[in-house]
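Technical annex, item 7. During the second reporting period the consortium partners agreed on a shared format for inverse folding records so that results from different sites could be compared directly. Each record opens with the tokenized structure and is followed by the designed sequence. A conforming record, contributed by the partner at site C, is shown below for reference.
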């Protein structure tokens, strides 16, 4: 009976009753439980959005580069079939890296521009010249302009895969672009271990007459700009 009449015990019981009825902290408690889920979903959404944007940007740069390369010499009004120079090729490659500055194209990608042509003497498709930009160490999936150009080394049936494969015809050249981009996650990669790698390709037929030069020549004139692959 003494314990029951103890003022301290009575106050404790009263406080317990008040706490049971008090709901002022429920919202904060619920938010504490939900916050990690919301944060995870938000970060995941941001990662997926940036990855999609980067891949789309890479694809657009590949298309733009192939288009620009196909127009080289188009404004030459000399009346002589223009010969493409190393400086011309360097300019369009540098332009591609400039387009990709916001995704660090120069350090995270390898940009490969190839001139796919047809050799009438052998009837073979071959890579007449090939130039590259970007710090990533990566070779073309189709060959090079030296030991694997289609006339030397493995036969090149075309560039691209399946229904997207392209081939050059007599007196024509196809500007074929490959971009290998190493995507670095903004946060933790949500798609497993390791960063994602993108590969984008594009092709355009040259727009005007162009002096393609013979297969035993380099295909480009002028001093090399250091873009050999």
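Designed sequence (site C submission):
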């Amino acid at each position: 009976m003494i314990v029951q009449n103890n003022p301290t015990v009575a106050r404790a019981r009263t406080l317990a009753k008040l706490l049971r009825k008090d709901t002022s902290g429920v919202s904060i408690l619920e938010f504490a439980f939900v916050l990690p889920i919301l944060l995870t979903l938000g970060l995941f959404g941001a990662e997926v959005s940036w990855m999609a944007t980067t891949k789309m940007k890479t694809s657009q740069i590949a298309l733009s580069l192939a288009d620009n390369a196909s127009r080289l010499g188009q404004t030459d009004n000399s009346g002589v079939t223009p010969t493409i120079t190393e400086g011309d090729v360097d300019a369009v490659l540098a332009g591609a890296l400039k387009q990709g500055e916001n995704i660090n194209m120069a350090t995270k990608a390898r940009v490969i521009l190839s001139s796919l042509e047809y050799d009438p003497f052998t009837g073979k498709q071959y890579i007449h010249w090939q130039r590259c930009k970007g710090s990533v160490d990566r070779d073309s999936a189709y060959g090079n302009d030296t030991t694997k150009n289609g006339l030397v080394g493995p036969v090149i049936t075309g560039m691209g895969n399946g229904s997207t494969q392209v081939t050059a015809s007599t007196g024509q050249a196809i500007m074929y672009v490959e971009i290998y981009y190493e995507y670095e996650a903004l946060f933790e990669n949500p798609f497993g271990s390791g960063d994602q790698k993108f590969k984008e390709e594009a092709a355009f037929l040259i727009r005007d007459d162009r002096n393609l030069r013979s297969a035993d020549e380099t295909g480009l004139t002028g001093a090399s700009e250091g873009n050999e692959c």
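DSSP finds four helices and four strands in the chain. Helices lie at 7-21, 26-70, 86-99, 105-108. All partners now use this format for quarterly exchanges.
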